[in-house]
Amino acid sequence: MKKLNLVFFTFLFIHNCFSQAQDTIRLLAIGNSFSEDALEYYLHDLAKADGKVMIIGNMYMAGAHLTFHVENIKENKNAYEYRKINAEGVKKVYKNQSIASALKDEKWDYISLQQVSSLSGKYDTIMKSLPFMIHYVKKNKSKKNKIAISSNMGLPERCPP
């Protein structure tokens, strides 16, 4: 199921982003292991195969949910591994980084916010934190970038019909 979610997210991202004429596409994810899988292992090579150049940043914390991200924003915690893949596809990992520092690192075209899979499809848990995160990102971003919500498909045993 995780691979299916990954392929679906990656397809939608490529379809929406790469239809635009840009020299370099910059994407920052504030996420967890789903953003790790989707961005760090596949996206750069898929973009390259389509003749696109990408810079990818991933604020990674395993199992991180939106409320966790909000708490870290409010306290400006250096709680993440900032994983950055440059235009040539070289990945570097910077430990003990804050969301604020990652937002300032590049003029990101897209910023993706990721809910943890165990809370996927639970509207109340998303809406508890998402408005704050969107407000914070908008306040700290360049005017041209867009915010994306990266949502893995709800797992049947966790989501009501």
UniProtKB/TrEMBL annotation:
Cross-referenced Pfam families: DUF4886
Record key words, sorted: Signal
Signal peptide location: 1-21
What are the residue boundaries of the DUF4886 domain, all occurrences included?
27-146
Ranges in coiled-coil conformation:
none
Residue stretches spanning the membrane:
none
Kindly give the Gene3D superfamilies that the UniProt entry links to this protein. Answer: SGNH hydrolase
Indicate what this protein is called per its UniProt record.
Answer: DUF4886 domain-containing protein
What is the source species?
Answer: Sphingobacterium thermophilum
